[in-house]
Amino acid sequence: MAKKDAPPRWDRKMQQRLARGEAAALGEFYDRFASLVHGLAHRVLGDEQAADGITREVFAHVWQHPDSYDPMQGPLRTWVAALTHRLAVQRLHATETAALADGGPGSTEELELKVRHASVAARADYIVHAMPAPLRAALELAYFQRRDYRQTAADLGVTEDEARRRLRLGLQLLATAHDAPSPGAPPGYGGAA
């Protein structure tokens, strides 16, 4: 694997501060990533209380194991999203498996499909929120407001070619949501599982 570019300065400094046990660093980390963590957990689990529990678990893990983040593997944001995603999928799988064992409706295949669907949906949400604002704006106009590329170009004040480029790039990024490994696979910094 090719060596990645050096991580942003904030990520390196935050990792170092967390490793030193600075409580103020955890507060800053929480302020920056709490909505991302809770949103991803809620997207996977579909339950506010369960998402709150995963959020607490993620921040406890960060506090107790700050060295588990390797700045050379990617941005801190991607790492915390991958951690959240993995823990939420594990919780969903455990909860649904327990419900099946207690005689709940469905089958193992339906359970795996439900977990996979929740996983892909959460990854798609993360991709949309992490993409550059110009790409996100173009996709939101096209998807939510049903604009074609000409209308999108006019709304954004860009050329039609630029609007098509933004839509194409945004859709290409979004298509990678389906490329995530199965829920039982180990997490990757690329945001997968």
TrEMBL record:
Keywords for the protein's UniProt record, in alphabetical order: Sigma factor, Transcription, Transcription regulation
Protein name: RNA polymerase sigma factor
Originating organism: Streptomyces vulcanius
Pfam families linked to this entry: Sigma70_r2
SUPFAM superfamilies found in the cross-reference section: Sigma2 domain of RNA polymerase sigma factors (SSF88946), Sigma3 and sigma4 domains of RNA polymerase sigma factors (SSF88659)
Homology family: Belongs to the sigma-70 factor family. ECF subfamily.
InterPro entries: RNA_pol_sigma-70-like, RNA_pol_sigma-70_dom, RNA_pol_sigma70_r2, RNA_pol_sigma_r2, RNA_pol_sigma_r3/r4-like, WH-like_DNA-bd_sf
Segments forming domain RNA polymerase sigma-70 region: 29-92
Presence of keyword NADP: no
Keyword Ion transport found: no
Domain of life: Bacteria
